[in-house]
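#onboarding

Welcome to the new folks! Below is a worked example of what a typical request in this channel looks like: someone posts a single protein sequence, and someone else replies with the predicted structure as tokens. Don't worry about understanding the tokens yet, we'll cover that in week two.

Example request:
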Amino acid sequence: MSNTYEGQEGLDERSAADREIIRLFAGIQSNDLEAFEAFHKLLAPRILAYSLSFTRDIDAAHDLLQTIMLQVYEHRGRFKEGNLMAWLFTIARNACRTWQMKSKRFEPLPDGFDMTATDTAPLDDDEVSIIQRAILSLPDEFRTVVVLHYFGDMGVAEIAEAEEISVSLVKMRLFRARKKLATILESALDHRYGQSR
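Example response:
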């Protein structure tokens, strides 16, 4: 049986990593364990960042990462066509929400934990910590779209499909999250550097 990935609109615009994830998943569906290892390595940072947005605990996020990857592998035959990234993050969202219902507690991140997906800005440790705390202080619906968009490298349409909400709602949540982050960060940085900025 040939698996098609219809609904992968804009595939040419996707990052090379996303195209590689799609290619590797086709291998996983053919029981290629090496493809699964490469898939895991490529997707793990995104899933970990997403899990961390729910758990706020690095150990629990790592546990969820393994749970999610196991579920992806076990259910690989169920994906026939559509948006693969949305399907993957639906599995991740469901696992995270199950964890939330079971745990009903959040623990703070260890000091100095780096949640950034890439090292693109010359921020010192205190600035990184301020940004992480600001993101983690957002309400769940805002934090989730921010993490998926900026750390999970997902587009608005992919987030909408993964979260089962409209594209306009994703855009609104991103807009409101940015405004809220700007206010939080302005206050935190004014406190850190004084009012002289």
